[in-house]
Amino acid sequence: MVSITLNKDSVRSATNPPDTLTGTLRAQDADGIDSVWLQLDDDPPIAEDGLLQTSFQSPFRVVVPAGFSSGARLPLTLEARDVTGFRSVLDTMVRVARAGP
Fold first, then answer.
1. pLDDT, tens digit, for every residue of 36-59?
2. Contact between 96 and 68 (Cβ < 8 Å)
3. Which residues contact 40 (CB under 8 A, 6 or more apart)?
4. What does the alpha-carbon distance between residue 56 and residue 65 come to, in Å, rounded to a whole number?
5. Ordered structural domains, the chain, with CATH
């Protein structure tokens, strides 16, 4: 089982300083979690070691890339692999909000 708790569901693109997406990653597997990855859009994934624990939880912080227009939806993918090689994937989206004051 994998889950993401987001601190917000919309982000701003091309702001200075860049906006960040934050939240908490969770993974659970009776065999033990080997690795966890989080990827926003096409950016390189952020990797965490599950330390072979049956339950994994970690806060995350991802910088939002510039260049997306208001209303765009950015894919956010969480993937976890257990010690036997089984993978669980959760796909969701965050919306790019209108830039403003």
1. 999 999 999 999 999 999 999 999
2. yes
3. 21, 62, 64, 65, 74, 75, 76, 94
4. 27
5. 2-96 (2.60.40.2550)
Tokens of 86: 């089984």
CA 88, CA 64: separation in Å to the nearest integer? 24
Q: Say which residue the tokens 């969480």 belong to.
A: 78
Among 29, 83, 85, 77, CA closest to 57: 29
Contact, 12 vs 19, CB < 8 A? yes
Is the separation of the CB atoms in 37 and 79 below 8 Å?
yes
pTM for the whole structure: 0.87
Chain centre to alpha carbon of residue 19: 14
